[in-house]
Design a protein that fits this description.
Elements (H helix, E strand, L loop, with lengths): L3 E5 L4 H13 L5 E5 L3 H9 L11 E4 L2 E4 H12 L14 H13 L1 H5 L10 H6 L3
Parallel strand pairs: 1-2
Antiparallel strand pairs: 1-3, 3-4
């Protein structure tokens, strides 16, 4: 398994944008992206105590340690460096506020951003990182 793995909803347009963000900024090609809708994606979420049916399920695994919610996004940004380290400012928010904010976005993502099929996107940089 790769050292850095993101497990996300392959049917969510917002998640697909996040996957393209990872593919675009991961210059060292360290990240792999795994759809929740795969048996391995579901198994990893369950292993780390998450519900694959919960819209707030987004997981970042780095060297066997799992992170979720805004903490996962902040950690991914830190790996990219540069301006993306600025995401760390979100850590100034109390953890319950971070979780509330993330949950609100996650629960409304289909309504606001729509649906897509991440695995069908023609972006070669993204396709190279997908584990499907």
């Amino acid at each position: 398994m790769p050292a850095r793995l993101t497990v996300m909803d392959a049917q969510c347009a917002l998640c697909a944008r996040g996957a393209r963000w990872i593919a675009r900024h991961d210059r060292r090609e360290e990240f792999r992206i795994l759809p929740i809708q795969t048996p391995l994606g579901e198994a990893l979420l369950r292993h780390y105590g998450m519900d694959p049916q919960d819209p707030a399920s987004w997981l970042y695994i780095e060297n066997g340690r799992a992170y979720s919610s805004l903490d996962a996004i902040i950690r991914v940004g830190q790996r990219f460096g540069g301006l993306w380290r600025g995401l760390a400012v979100l850590r100034l928010l109390p953890r319950p506020v971070q979780d509330w904010l993330y949950a609100r976005i996650a629960r409304n993502r289909y309504r606001v951003m729509g649906r897509t099929d991440m695995c069908a996107l023609p972006d070669p940089a993204l396709r190279k990182r997908l584990i499907a």
